[in-house]
Amino acid sequence: MDQMTPLAADTSLIDALREIVGERGLLLGEDVALRSCDPFRPVPPEGGIIVRPASTEEVSAVMAFCHERGQPVVTHGGRTGVAGGAFTARDQIVISMERMNRIEEIDEFNQCLVAQAGVPIEVLHNAASDANMLYPIDLGSKGSATLGGTISTNAGGNRVLRWGMTRANLLGIEVVLADGTVVSAMNRLTKNNTGYDMKHIFAGTEGTLGIVTRAVVRLVPKPASQQVAVVAVPSYDAVLEMLKSARKLPALSAFEVMWQDYYDLMANSNTGRRPLETGSPFYILMESMGYNEEQDEQQFMAFLENSFEQGLIVDAVTSQSLAQVQEMWRLREGGEVFAAQMWPIVSSDISVDVRKTDEYVGKVRAKLSAAYPGLKMVTFGHLGDGNIHIGIHVGPDTVEEELNVEHILYDTLRDYDSALTAEHGVGQVKKKFLPDHVEPGVLTVMRHLRDALDPDRLLNRDVLL
Amino acid sequence: MDQMTPLAADTSLIDALREIVGERGLLLGEDVALRSCDPFRPVPPEGGIIVRPASTEEVSAVMAFCHERGQPVVTHGGRTGVAGGAFTARDQIVISMERMNRIEEIDEFNQCLVAQAGVPIEVLHNAASDANMLYPIDLGSKGSATLGGTISTNAGGNRVLRWGMTRANLLGIEVVLADGTVVSAMNRLTKNNTGYDMKHIFAGTEGTLGIVTRAVVRLVPKPASQQVAVVAVPSYDAVLEMLKSARKLPALSAFEVMWQDYYDLMANSNTGRRPLETGSPFYILMESMGYNEEQDEQQFMAFLENSFEQGLIVDAVTSQSLAQVQEMWRLREGGEVFAAQMWPIVSSDISVDVRKTDEYVGKVRAKLSAAYPGLKMVTFGHLGDGNIHIGIHVGPDTVEEELNVEHILYDTLRDYDSALTAEHGVGQVKKKFLPDHVEPGVLTVMRHLRDALDPDRLLNRDVLL
Lengths: 465, 465
What we know:
The structure is a homodimer of 465-residue chains.
Chain A: H1 11-21, E1 26-27, H2 30-33, E2 50-51, H3 56-69, E3 73-76, E4 93-96, E5 103-107, E6 112-116, H4 121-130, E7 133-134, H5 147-152, H6 160-163, E8 170-176, E9 182-185, H7 198-202, E10 211-218, E11 220-221, E12 225-233, H8 236-246, E13 252-259, H9 260-267, E14 282-290, H10 293-309, E15 315-318, H11 322-332, H12 335-342, E16 346-352, H13 357-371, E17 376-382, E18 387-393, H14 402-413, E19 418-419, H15 434-437, H16 440-453
Helix pairs in contact in A: 1-3, 13-14
């Protein structure tokens, strides 16, 4: 086929796909053009074809057909990823999981949920909540992000330090390989060492080894209590001291740190995000979720009082109602505020040895300031897990300067025990930096596995490596 | 080389290995003959050669050499596995990790420990404890079982329901591939999505994809309180009710169930294992480990009282001292007692949907009783995780009847949501049953990955598939 002809002009291809998924299973023309592969700006799938299988069997048939033709595909979940994992080139068709959005079962006794890959995380939350349980993965994009997408990226979010990343909440998985083979390992048992563990082979591989079609996730009992506090902290050493002792709170569910630059931007944004006065070097949002309200609250308050007495906290506010809980979380999840005030923006998701995070942030700031006098930079994130996000604006030409900014961010990272990506993945965006951040032997294994399961690179071929 | 000549007669092979690992790195003759690949009976490595590399570089050089010669190897950790994973045939050399037994670092802030693969689990426990932390993996064989062996088998043990299996406690890994390539991913960060996650690719693959040489494991703060109780429970429904509410105890660290047959055998063994009268259908050992003694104890006692009021418990004893804690655990870890009283024995490690475990046990007992009038059978295990162990003696010809007994055990299992092996692995022992217990697509993926990383099957070739 002519490289310059869009895939959507190939009527024999379209007819064959329609044969498999039916009329409802196919989107073309404007339905494709109006859809974006990026959560922040319009990036339509360039191939112009979206296939929407309604069952595992249809995914399998689509892949068997694509395998025969050597037709590359990109799998779409909620398209909330910021690493370019959903970008779809001219010669690629999209397989969207949006019609596979059924929750099949909630098993109250074994505390797990069986669902198709296209179910949005928030829908899982609501279903679990109705059964008096909690699906622990919680992230800002939960309204759109899907089960399959979060499995493929091993998504993290706000409560990782209590319940782990997505893979830690995964019990079973069903996947379709590049050649259409269905791999079913829908385990719901805690302990199962019967051969290689499929969920761990496929989770976090960004859709390059297979298409997740269904999964079993664990639920936990719905917490009966929730305490949230925002505290102002005088130094990074005090942040570390707080973290060290906070880890002994059995019900601790979040330890989110906001550097002064981030907090001040939020507090001055006139969006009602100002629980404390500005001016402290650090602010921490702490959360505890437990099963015994009286004891949980007592432990949480005792921790705060103790920290205050030790001079680790200079100011604090605690939630008195669910509305206040939500308000405090709005402070931490203020992405749209700094995006609006700092656009265009380069954002970053990294992990650093917690002891050195502030040192790293300082180095990056110094290097960026030297290069860009108009620098605006905000730092915040899941410090309890060593994971921070940095938002950077260097002026109207931020987009043109992106590669240089990224080099400063990621090259500086190499001086530390660190991760190029903590929770967002490599995708297409960080692909060029990958070889500098993992050992050569790791790249060798990655290539061997990808060659083994998808030798023709049909699945998400432009991501990772 | 002649199939009938033992490998140990090949002096050129031995000289070449000595060249790599030195005199101390090589065991031959009686040193090999006196060593067993099985924890219960003498099964010497048939090849007659044990290589003991002292560093990752030496492991790499040994494998590069073996790769060139097409020489198969079997990796040995503590040789405590009961699935035959360490059995070594006539044409295979042993690579023992026993000299790679160094703890390299304890990182108190990031709460992790860096060690070579040959360190026994108990040594990790002691080192963690000295630093006021806990390595959560706890298993009966901890005195001999090694870090590398427990990673390769994804070992479980007593406290999985609180802290997860070995893979959940693994942060970083270093592995040597079949061709000698070193794969280093010694991550110590909680969140790291930088490409495929090496620790999860290699953990639980029973040494078939690579040889684990070093690892980083997470530690948790050392618990400040420990409560243990043994309770007598009138029915399996009561066991399930107890489990359901026990899951809400934030400090719950073990929920071990003993069927009456197991408890009575222990209680009547004259080994001081009789905390309660015999005669109840079920006994539960519950443990709580927390960081606030007063609150933990209060919650634990309130739980027991509440269960008693609901009629779920008919009798109970709680620990008043560390000595009593150890005594209660001796009851549960009474392997040597029933091994002595029921020898020869077939033992089994499986998972079943907890709701159906007792039904499964009843079916197995009925089938075995019908076939073997002299049946002795005891059931116990980590029911909080759905994992039980069954010990079976059918008479003096138990060994001859083993295959038939296993068919009854594992064929019956297929009627349930279940796992052929929960925590012990497949090894050589359960290999023949594997295809009946995982879907064909899973076997396909396993073969593809193994072919990709070890096409000549040099590593532990007789295990798994």
